[in-house]
Write a structure and sequence with these properties.
mainly alpha; single chain
């Protein structure tokens, strides 16, 4: 799931989704769940923090001039 549509936000749908995903992963025996968002998306970062996620690292990216054409 990428995100909840703007018109549906504030209804608890995102919370239900993340709770379901976390519970599902726990049943599978996963040791952790990772999520990602843009650094400037403070709303998403706050949402994840409210659901027990903590920031542990920094992802570094570099865009390339040309696209990647893997077979």
């Amino acid at each position: 799931v990428r995100d909840v549509s703007k018109g549906s936000r504030g209804q608890g749908i995102g919370s239900q989704l993340i709770d379901h995903v976390v519970a599902y992963c726990a049943r599978l025996g996963c040791e952790e769940v990772e999520v990602s968002t843009e650094a400037d998306n403070l709303a998403a970062r706050g949402f994840y923090a409210r659901h027990g996620f903590v920031e542990r690292g920094v992802l570094l990216e570099r865009e390339l001039e040309e696209g990647c054409d893997l077979p």
